[in-house]
Design brief:
alpha+beta; 13 strands; six-stranded mixed barrel; 3 domains; two-stranded antiparallel sheet
């Protein structure tokens, strides 16, 4: 059969436009089915893109670990013994756990999540003050808007420099004042500002009202010795975080004589679990979208088949005359199937166009907002699969009215009133 048959498609057009209202109503089922399928797939992609941006700049295969109090007595030690990590633990972990990519010890002035008064020229800011290594930027990226982040030279020379957040800058400096080279005072010690960072939209564990100074400078200025507050660790991409976390905990439990079943002594947070959960959620949502879309599309295409069955009955006399003057079963069958395909493709393309427009409106509406929804699109593979499915279903259901038409006998058809 020729795909480009002008007479055939002219005949299809004339047939479908005889009752234009019924044709429009028939297409609505497929139109809404395609809209539902594309909108579900597009919004799922938009959510996935939004979550990806939310975690942008943060190593998703990372974990954080800190010492707490023991929950069980063990080897003569009482319950409630405080566990504090030191640099010896850092060396031990690096030597024994080869799956680690980056290990960055951290320490904070004051209690965990506490603040310290940072002053400058009579202005003050209640900021979180961290002692860090440059490697922390590989785990939690800082969006610098002025100057630079700390480097290894700052660590080696114990420079009294700091990087401040944008909120700290606003509280301590005048508007449009250049902060680079200026000094701030922390617990009686002056630090020169070398950089200002701004928090990106998304996950950030430190906020914008924070001050970062070299770890070695922190040790000297605030007499923290070899003590560390907690560890920020990223695992190599070809390893899972959970087994590595368990390996590190077992190593430290052995060193500090902690009961193997004690879950309180060492605190931890596995960031990868959040990311894995989000990925699983989007995959399930995409599968659910396909499931709902396919069955809705099937229902719409079946509606077209039912309408064509009615039109075949209405055109019994016409079909009988065509058979009587020499139309072969193949020609009749091709006519009916072509009508089914035309209705499905037209309504499907219209539904696709409308849904793309809606996705664009949603993209414009949510772009720039804090809601994790960015660039809701449908992939080329999804589009081709949806189109092929729609075409295949239309051919399949078109066979039902076509077979009904082939059963019409010319003599009986000519007697039909």
């Amino acid at each position: 059969m020729k795909l480009i048959d002008v007479d055939l498609w002219r005949e299809v057009y004339n047939t479908l436009t005889k009752n234009i209202l019924r044709t429009i109503l028939t297409t609505l089922g497929v139109l809404f089915a395609v809209m539902i399928l594309i909108l579900l797939l597009g919004t799922t992609t938009g959510m996935k893109n939004g979550f990806d941006k939310l975690f942008k700049g943060t190593a998703t295969n990372s974990l954080f670990m800190w010492g707490q109090s023991t929950g069980k007595p063990y080897k003569g030690f009482e319950r409630g013994r405080r566990i504090s990590f030191t640099f010896d633990d850092i060396k031990l972990i690096k030597n024994e756990v080869k799956e680690i990519d980056v290990l960055s010890p951290r320490i904070q002035l004051g209690n965990f999540r506490g603040t310290v008064t940072v002053t400058r020229n009579g202005q003050s800011s209640g900021s979180s003050v961290y002692g860090d290594f440059p490697s922390i930027d590989k785990i939690s990226k800082k969006n610098l808007v002025e100057g630079r982040f700390m480097n290894q030279d700052d660590i080696d020379k114990r420079r009294k420099i700091c990087v401040i957040g944008s909120d700290t800058y606003k509280l301590l400096f005048k508007t449009d004042e250049d902060p680079i080279g200026g000094y701030v005072k922390i617990n009686g010690v002056y630090f020169q500002v070398v950089g200002v960072y701004k928090k990106e939209k998304g996950v950030d564990f430190d906020g914008e009202n924070s001050v970062f100074i070299p770890f070695t400078t922190f040790q000297k200025a605030f007499n923290s010795g070899e003590r560390i507050g907690w560890m920020a660790i990223s695992v190599k991409s070809n390893y899972s975080v959970a087994p590595v976390l368990a390996k590190i905990k077992n190593l430290l439990k052995t060193k500090y004589s902690i009961h193997p079943d004690d879950s309180r002594a060492i605190g931890s947070f596995d960031l990868s679990q959040i990311f894995v959960g989000i990925n699983a959620f989007t995959i399930v949502l995409q599968g659910f979208s396909f499931f709902i879309g396919i069955f809705t599309l099937l229902a719409g295409v079946i509606a077209i088949s039912n309408i064509l069955l009615i039109t075949v009955k209405e055109r019994t006399k016409e079909i009988g005359i065509r058979r009587a003057i020499g139309a072969t079963p193949k020609i009749i069958k091709r006519q009916i199937i072509s009508e089914a395909v035309a209705l499905t493709i037209f309504s499907g393309l219209l539904g696709f166009s409308i849904s793309v427009g809606i996705l664009h409106i949603l993209d414009v509406k949510f772009s720039g907002s804090d809601f994790p929804f960015i660039n809701p699109t449908v992939s080329f593979v999804q589009l081709i699969f949806s189109f092929a499915l729609m075409l295949g279903l239309s051919l399949l259901v078109g066979l039902i009215p076509a077979r009904r038409a082939l059963k019409i006998r010319p003599i009986e058809a000519l007697r039909d009133e």
